[in-house]
């Protein structure tokens, strides 16, 4: 790609109409694009399993489930594995990492499993795995480290 | 949080109207939510710098720039650092990792810099840093490893 | 710590006698310090479990099992999970990451489990977990991404 | 490799003589194998640069600088970038990640640079890069996240 094409690729905002449409999106809409369609199958203290049918809106330029959408699920579903342990503890992300192993396509059913590996006084670590619902094949696996705090004590 | 609240948090789809609105979003809309508003400041072979004013649609539940949006930028802007080297080589993500260091708020100007650390025959590694435009303070830093291939030779 | 102490900490080579002793160590001795004492408990295609009694030589300045020794095990035992699948395929590390969750002390029995999550044509991903043998508590979990190649075809 | 060979590879302890030699190594000897020969070239608050001539003892089975030795340097030299800021704060590793980009060979001069990216009240993040001294080519880059605490207040 020449440099001008790279610039166009990143600044790909379309017509003025499209731009104002996107700019009119409500606060936190980015997250809503992921959670809409997410179904919780199992929830236990420290463990959450969800399913989702890959919607076209979450595809990337190669027509596969976006790696950034996978990262969102590692963040979001991972965090709920901590919430599921009860208490008033919340937290902020320290680190997220993801290994990508397979592609997921539009309308494919995927399963997301988050497991709390460690919940200490100040740090929690969660593992999150995305699998093809039909075959169990791993699409991606990530880990999410959070710094925990009780907001009232900050 | 009790288990029922965690379920509601993840399945937070609102009214039926809202659901059909979201389901009507065009293909790849998730990525468009990020690229709309992204401005390329500098582009050189192996290096890309963009700026963005944090839009409310990319905030998380705590009203700060979403960690998943950061991951999207590490993916997207990181990839263009490879494109900027020319050639017909594209690739797939092998691994993405991100350390989160500071919060960015609505309407704050952020700078995203991607640098190709290594472009070998089969693997490329890119570093991506998000900074506060005003102070230069690091918001997050990530690395993105890609497996490169020339599609016609697959 | 003042800057001079930091320098001393890093260059801590002791007497001349000690230095020549260390410099006389045989090639690859670093790895031998880890593998000596490692016992393979189970080996199946794509899965390897080892145990080790933490030796004093692998402790860090705080008298706990060295984080770098954990990284060595993620590298080494992770690689054998690929070897255990047979074939002549070898590979080089693309990325290794480790989350540290608990300390292990001298003479403590630890268990190291490596599982191949994905073995594709060019990339393999392995998960490696270190646990306390007695309680099963996780000490650390890591992932290891390798680029695979058949040497004769390079 | 067949399963029996994998087992032998991991349990490669040699003769009884060799085993007792290794078991007689002093406490923390693993770290000494790395620090011996490490030379501090520059030390500033938040930044440390060292050089090292790759000794045969730190090679792996393929006769290149061991990926686990790289991890040790990310841990050790990364930590000193925090020490170099003064104060009595120490810390424990939360996460270490490393991307491997090039090989280093016996007797090659390598440069290790650690930079504190962020030092907050509870979490610090350090970037560590290994380069070939002669060409500046990156061998590996990693990040090290630490949880900071003042021991007396624990």
Summarize the structure.
By secondary structure, chain A is an alpha+beta fold. Chain A is 26% helix and 37% strand.
| The CATH superfamily title of chain A | Hotdog Thioesterase
- The quaternary structure here is homotetramer
CATH architecture of chain A: Roll
| Most extensive chain-chain interface | C-D, 67 and 68 residues
Family (chains A, B, C, D): Belongs to the thioesterase PaaI family.
GO molecular function (chains A, B, C, D): fatty acyl-CoA hydrolase activity
Keywords (chains A, B, C, D): Hydrolase
InterPro entries (chains A, B, C, D): ACOT13 (IPR039298), HotDog_dom_sf (IPR029069), PAAI_dom (IPR003736), Thioestr_dom (IPR006683)
What does this structure look like?
Four copies of one chain form a homotetramer. Chain A is of the alpha+beta class. The first copy, chain A, has a single domain, classed as Hotdog Thioesterase (Thiol Ester Dehydrase, Chain A), CATH 3.10.129.10. In chain A, 26% of the residues lie in helices and 37% in strands. Chain A starts with a helix and ends in a 5-residue tail after the last strand. The relative contact order of chain A is 0.17. The model of chain A has no long low-confidence stretch (mean pLDDT 92). Chains in contact: A-B, A-C, A-D, B-C, B-D, C-D. At the C-D interface, α1, α2, α3, β1 and α4 of C face α1, α2, α3, β1 and α4 of D. β3 of chain A pairs antiparallel with β3 of chain B.
